[in-house]
């Protein structure tokens, strides 16, 4: 029982928010707990032996009413010293000042220092000068309840970046070589729906950039109400390497809006493939069969196989009741047409506390988890269908971390399209297979 | 190979990079040599030693040798855990004393050994043992090989540490031991065979790292489960892929899912499909706020892989049951469904059952078209609050099904404590779960034997591949197929009886 209790205690007391603030403050670190006084004993020697030669070290001290500590950059066999950061939490903000230079060993010498830990006596002594700088403590000697020590590693190191680069190549290859289910169509059509300014066009540009090899712009970006963004556009993307079309097409419509924007009655027509490229939407009047450019002949090739609702992650709270109702109606229309929608959350890298290093494990970040849950509750989408992407906005060159996020989401959409194709009634599949046979026959004929 | 063992997770797919491993090994060996040479100037104690930049990400720093992908694979193998490195032999001294200073009182650990051509490790439950050459500490341990993504079963080990050696005994024989100051590891031959590394003969390791394992439940049962769960899941999946209906009497088993709206019928189908595919799949019907979608009768078969053949079963989904009269599935539709007269995609009407005059009515269904098993689908959290009207409706439905002679199972969904459903060997359900009041109530209400009251946790809200969820889903499916086989086996006798009559 005692052993079990001790096992359970080998966990930091830092809250997620405190840990995140510290990580960001120290430049994107991650922490590995090495020492905990209540488990390993209130013993300086024990702290020293467990933490020596572990790389940069963070010591966190918990008193009855404060959390504070010391970041020590130098902790290896050489004798180099460096300035250390003495920090304290004031609510959730970090106050800090530099002390030193020290290394991990000298912090325990009994000589008078700005900051000294005595675990045996469970107290920390801070010099008067340092006390003034931190503006938080009243006394030079502070009783401590707990002391934890962590090794600090870069959230993004070469090892992880190598893994990301490899994953990116795997995803690129998987998407380049993707074939729709049973070759029923040559290209999957993915429709992007969402409020104006959510990042639909930016997502298209970001996807195209990955395959191009540098950041490129084709779809016009901006939340203005110009005539261009009222058009229906179908964008095929060529692979930058082979200059052949990729097996998907991204389709962009006018944004959803409380007032104008996309007419919901247009959705079934878009999904079934009646709406031609460059069709000019009218928010008051859906397309009709009488329209001169209405596509009468339907084929599996021309219809939408996957729908992605695009939302700016920072705008979910501000969605008006009218917009929420509109999105829900749109979702139902999509589902009635047999297509399972997914959600793309854009701009997560601009969310509070999120840094570039978080993108490699973005689904485990608390703010993103909460945001996805909010979308689930507010709009009704399944959590597993709420995907996170990171668009290129100001960059000139590609970032493999962003690419992995975007390509992973794209692959999910291709899988969703496969599910749609597999669920089609048999006669539609047979029709498509017949047309494939005819194509093959024509090829053979031409060749001979 | 790796994909088969560890299906892709939601957003990231990892492949085991053998070539990367080899490069990493060669590079690491060069780094070791260079470090050794450069150690001399430090001994001279002239200017402070500044590490060569080439060492920054090599063995000098407290960074694991695992590539990022290898780390992910290992985390998954151990049950979606986190790993915290705290001892590395090339950074800390290669001595038992120093290793113990770092390792004791850190909780459950894995010790990872980098041999020239493979990575092996030992999981030790609880705290590291104390040094005492006269004493052996009882503990639980299992071993893994990263090259083959494989674990052993849990061993009851006796751990013993003296000033030179750390050894794990099982049945009074050393199965795994380390001699740090010589960088030597011993692995018993039978253990090597079990890990698939019997052809690796080297006993000198390049590196030893010890990690704390975080995010596991601290109980022995859990440890046993994670060692066997992937193997069992893969075996079960292979069994179901190879399933053939009894005596090949039909080409497919048709399983009917019946239950109230929101009970998880469609989610169960999606979950089964996702298990076979190895990634999340979506059917438009899922999402109970769009109730009109499930007015259709759907016969779902499952494509196994992109263009693979389908396993010989289908899951049939109907309109939900409703406690009110004239709402939900019409009682008079049920016999037609069971007899196989209702075609795929038929639109139900609560007020008007299908009739033989309907243009798509199947007038002469064969045995293949019939329903061979019925699964009542209920949310386990709603059973104790079922209204008397809904109970009455279930009994009404059951009466019809019994008169048609179709076997029945109950499928309870949304089981949050799904870790506790099965015994450690996954072969049977735990009595602590089967003795719950919900199970008793279903048994009493529907007269279904407990072995056919099945519990699952669907992949409804979140896809993070969990082999234990897979096992529950596949086990439930297997029980349905067994019930259907019993039904088919019983048919010839009934035919004989009919013949004599």
Automatic annotation (TrEMBL), chain A:
Keyword Cytoplasm found: yes
Function comment: This protein aggregates to form microtubular structures.
Stretches assigned to coiled coil: none
Cytoplasm is among the record's keywords: yes
Stored InterPro entries: P-loop_NTPase, TLDc_dom
GO biological-process terms attached to the record: immune response; response to virus
Main localisation: cytoplasm
Localization of this protein: Cytoplasm
One GO CC term, this protein: cytoplasm
Species lineage: Eukaryota, Metazoa, Chordata, Craniata, Vertebrata
Transmembrane stretches, start-end: none
Protein family according to the UniProt entry: Belongs to the IFI44 family.
Pfam families hit by this protein: TLD
Name the UniProt record assigns to this protein: Interferon-induced protein 44
Signal peptide: none
Domain TLDc: 8-153
Keyword terms of this UniProt record: Cytoplasm
Automatic annotation (TrEMBL), chain B:
InterPro entries registered for this protein in UniProt: P-loop_NTPase, TLDc_dom
Gene3D superfamilies: P-loop containing nucleotide triphosphate hydrolases
Chief subcellular location: cytoplasm
Any one GO BP annotation for this protein: immune response
Alphabetized UniProt keyword annotations: Cytoplasm
TLDc domain residues: 60-214
Pfam family membership, one: TLD
A single cellular component GO annotation: cytoplasm
Localisation: Cytoplasm
PANTHER family hit by this protein: INTERFERON-INDUCED PROTEIN 44 (PTHR14241), INTERFERON-INDUCED PROTEIN 44-LIKE (PTHR14241:SF2)
Family: Belongs to the IFI44 family.
Protein name, entry field: Interferon-induced protein 44-like
Annotated source species: Pipistrellus kuhlii (Kuhl's pipistrelle)
